[in-house]
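The instructor's notes for this session suggest beginning with a concrete chain rather than abstract definitions. Hand out the sequence below and ask the class to guess, before any prediction is shown, which regions might be ordered.
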Amino acid sequence: MLERTLVLIKPDAVFSGWTDDIIKRYVDAGLTLVRHGMILFTHEQARAFYAEHEGKPFMNGLVLGMGSGPSVALVLEGEDAIARVRKMNGATDPYKADVGTIRRDFLSAGGVFNTVHGSANEKDAGTELWFIANWL
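After discussion, reveal the predicted structure:
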């Protein structure tokens, strides 16, 4: 099924200069880059974007990390794009991600500072794409 999904290249990866290499991974895998742009989350926007994690022990670190600098938002489209992107991204904890995944190959500070965010499912993709649409 043709789907659209959101990827955020997080500030740590942007600062590390990996944006083009990460985008190339998705495009080389046959996903279409529909739209992209640089965004800067305020702490309030990051907290709203990650509201499902409110109350979890890593939430404050996640908000601080996402608000630490610019992110690059990608709208990707393709057959089963959501599942394909999640597989390409690898485990949330980059130290548990398989070699060959984006989070492992572009190993950043780890923890809340993994390199990319990808929509978890179709419902989340719709909500996240709507949320980000105001910036792109």
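Then share the key points. The radius of gyration is 14 Å. The longest helix spans residues 122-133.
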